Amino acid sequence: MQKSDWKKLFSIPVIVAALGYFVDIYDLLLFSIVRIPSLKALGVPQDDLFAEGEFLLRVQMTGLLVGGIIWGIMGDKRGRLSVLFGSIMLYSLANIANGFVGSVQQYAWLRFVAGIGLAGELGAGITLVSEVLPARLRGYGTTLVASVGLLGAVLANFIAREFNWQVCYFIGGGLGLLLLIARISVFESGMFLHMRQQHVQRGNFLQLFTDTDRFKRFVNCILIGLPIWFTIGILITFSPEFASHLGFSEPVQAGDAVMFSYLGLVAGDLSSGVFSQWARSRRKIVRVYILLTLVFIIIYLLAPVKTTFFFFLTCFLLGFGVGYWALFVTIAAEQFGTNLRATVATSVPNFIRGTVVPLTLAFEALRTYFGIVQGALLVGAGTVMIALVSLRYLRETFGRDLNFVEE
Q1: Residue 50 or residue 116, greater confidence
Q2: What is the pLDDT of residues 320-349, one digit of tens each?
Q3: Which has the closest alpha carbon to 96: 146, 44, 23, 162?
Q4: Per-residue pLDDT tens for 244-303?
Q5: pTM assigned to the model
Q6: CB 170 within 8 Å of CB 42
Q7: In the chain, domain spans
Q8: How far apart are CA 30 and CA 254, in angstroms?
C-alpha cells in the first residue's frame, strides 16, 4: 500500500469505529464473564445458574435482535452518525444501571435494554467505514475495526479479575460515555449524503421482504454467521459447564475462556481479512473458515486430552475458526444499496446474535436426550451445514462499487 493509503486506513472514522466496537464487545461479553458471580450475588442457587444464565442470555440477544432493526432503519433514514451516538448512549447508561440490579427480573430488563443499545455499534461502524474508504482498502478497514473491537473482551476479563461484577458494569458504561467525546470529530458518509438528496426509499425494512432476490440475499447473509454465535453463545459462554462435564483437571473460569476465544477471533479476523484481499474473494475465505470451525468444534468436544492448557488452546482455535466475523458483516454491507446498507449491516449481525435464542433452546432439548456433548455436536454441525449452503447462494462482492441504491 502507498503512504496515502495508510493515511486513509487510519483515518478518524476508522479509528473511532474501531474504538466504538471495542467498548461494544466489552459490554456485550461482560455478562458471559460475570454471569456466575453476579447471579450468585443475586441469590440464585448453584443448581439454577446454568438455566438462569441461559434465560438472561436469551433476553440480551432478543434485545440485540430488536435493536438491530431499530438502529438499522435509523442509520439509513437519519444517517450513520445518529446510530453511533444514540446506540452508545443507550447501552452505556443501561450498563451503569446493571451495576445496581437487585433481582434476576431487574437484571433481565436491563440486559434487554443494553442489548438494544449494543445492536447499533458494529453495523453502523462497518457501513461508515465501507463507504468512506476506497474499494481497494475496504476489506482492510473493516478487518481493522473488527480486530481492534474484539480485544474489548480481553479487557473485560482483566477488569473482572480486579473488580467485582458491579464495578465492571460501571467501567463499561463510563468508557462508552467517554467515547461520545471522540465521536464529535467524525464526519458523515459522503455516499449517504448524496443518496439523501435522491428520491428513493431509505431504511424501509419491509423492502427486504417485498422482493425475492433481496429476501434471499438477506436470509443467506444471516445464515452464514450461524457457527459464529453457536460457538460464542454456547461453547464459550457455558465453558465452565462443558469443562466440568468433559472431565478437565481444573475448574475453568468463563472469563478466561472468553479471553482466549476472542484472542483467537482477533487472529482469525486479521488473517481472514488479509487472505480475502490477497485472494480477491470474500466467499472462498469464509468457506475455509467455516470448515475450520467444524474441525475445532469436534476437537473441543471429543479430544481425549484433559488439561486446562489444552482446553484454553481449543477455545483459541474456536475463536480463530469463527474469525470470519468481519468478512461476514462486510459481505452483508456490500450486498445491498446505500439506501438499505445500514439497515442490513446493522440487523444481520444482530439477527445472528439473536439466533442464540433458538440455538440454546435446540441445545437444551437435544442435551436432554443425547447429553451435553452429543447435543452440542449436533447443533454445531447443523449450523455449519446451513452456513455452507447459504454461502453458496451469495454473490461475490470483493471490489464492488457500493455507490448504488435498491429500487
Answers
A1: 116
A2: 999 998 888 889 888 888 788 878 888 888
A3: 23
A4: 888 887 888 888 998 899 899 989 988 998 899 899 999 999 999 999 999 999 999 999
A5: 0.80
A6: no
A7: 3-185+210-392
A8: 10
Rounded CA separation 281/273 (Å): 10
Q: Which H/E stretch holds residue 275?
A: helix 254-279
The rounded distance, in Å, linking the Cα atoms of 7 and 2 is 9
Amino acid present at 304: P
Greatest alpha-carbon pair distance for the chain in Å reads: 64
pLDDT at 139: 80
Q: State which fold the 3-185+210-392 domain adopts.
A: Growth Hormone; Chain: A; (1.20.1250)
The answer to whether 117 touches 81, Cβ cutoff 8 Å, is no
Angle in degrees, 0-180, between the axes of helices 121-132 and 80-98, rounded to the nearest 10 = 150
> 339 and 192 in contact (C-beta within 8 Å)?
no
Task: Quickly count: other Cβ atoms within 10 Å of residue 358's Cβ.
Answer: 12
Residues sharing a CB contact under 8 Å with residue 86, sequence separation 6 or more, in sequence order: 71, 74, 120
Determine phi and psi for 310, rounding to 5 degrees. Answer: -65, -40
- Residue 197: pLDDT over 70: no
What distance in Å separates the CA atoms of residue 85 and residue 69, rounded to the nearest whole number?
16
Distances 156 to 15, 69, 240 between C-alpha atoms, Å = 20, 27, 17
| Whether 384 contacts 257, CB under 8 Å | no
| Predicted pLDDT of residue 228 | 94
- CA-nearest of 76, 192, 63 to 118 is 63
Regarding predicted confidence, which is higher, 360 or 1?
360
